[in-house]
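Comment thread on ticket #2218

A.B. wrote:
> Attaching the input chain for the structure job we discussed in standup.
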Amino acid sequence: MSYDVIIVGAGPAGIFAALELTKHSNLKVAILERGKGIEERECPAKGSFKCLRCKPCNILSGWGGAGAFSDGKLTLSPEVGGWLSQLLGKRTLANLISYVDNVYLKFGAPSKVYGTELDKIEALSREATLAGMHLVPMRLRHMGTERARQVLKNIWYHIKDKVDVFFGKEVKDVLVKDNRVVGVKTTNDEVLKSKYVILAPGRAGATWLESTMKKLGVKTWSNPVDIGVRIEFPAPIFERFTSVLYDVKLIYYSKTFDDVVRTFCVNPYGEVITEFYEDIVTVNGQSYLNQKTENTNMAILVSTRFTEPFHDPIGYGRYIARLANILGDGIIIQRYGDLIRGRRSTPERIARAITKPTLKGATPGDLSFVLPYRVLTDILEMIRALDKLAPGIASEHTLIYGVEVKFYSVRVDVDENLMVKGIRDLYVAGDGAGLTRGLIQASVSGIVVARNILKTEKYVEFAKEPEE
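C.D. wrote:
> Ran it. Output below, let me know if you need it in another format.
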């Protein structure tokens, strides 16, 4: 089979590249996705007690990527969600974010935007400063898990007759001849030829993308690796912040080690969930637009940038997650009060907690046997700082789940159009390429790639505004 463009991965980067290509051209486009279609994507462990370790994980792979089961946060501020501003410039990125946001609205995203009440944000920012943290203000549209899924279904119905989409199709190799991409080979040794190839495998495909780049001799370097936990507590404790910003981005520099610690993926009235990466289970969170729990959950992540001679931050994160899986047969849960007293949580102690866990089947245990001393110290400092803002977060009854690891640590060497340097017409996009970390910027990266292909094929020229 032969195509003009092959897209590897049907996450937001791949989907938006296909949307833009089909909108402006009659190029023959194929999407190869190792997961399932949006209608078939269901987590069989939902409501049960253990992750069933499906391969590939239905939470992470399939139409929509990991975003299909996220709580659908569309971050509308260029400063949050990735590193594209370094390649595109802030003004160009802001314009592309607005363009992508309008596409999401067209396919059913809700109209409400958080982060617009500037007087309240300024007051909350002052409080954060007094507590020793920096509040990152941002505008955000929250779709909710159920609306995000419906939006992805609407996009699927719109595009399914315009591109060839192959589910359950996993790519093994990228084929290159004379420093130009010529196609891909699947795990079934099926060869598909193409003039252009876009690699957008998402975080679940970060390890594959790293090994592929090494095979091709492409330069990569490491982003900081994010390792931490997810905490859960009664939602009213943090409602003063989440009602204004929804996803509250707070940055803290630990006193002991001067490490960057941050909140990530705050889910007001949400639930804690699991994700399965090939051979490890990690924790995450989601929240619905209409369906509410009594709890709020958020990640607390410690960012570490390794230097010479270590070059495997993804491997390090996987090692920490695997250790938690060994000790807890999956995810470990511990009360904050037990952790600071140096004792493991037991089923009886978890049952006595005021905060009732939304994740069923996590194993009561002791996260101090899993997390490195430095990371654990940073996390405990951050929890105490958060308690100054919202008394009750450092409660004995706050639940801590571990571990949470973000696999977007390998960044591929690309030009301003996201074309891989040294290989013509091979592009990378999205979280798996270490360029983005969120729905909006991942979607933007797909648009950037598509527009450069359209320009090369002389379909349409897109003006780029000069930076100030």
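A.B. wrote:
> Thanks. Noting for the ticket: The chain has twelve helices and 21 strands.
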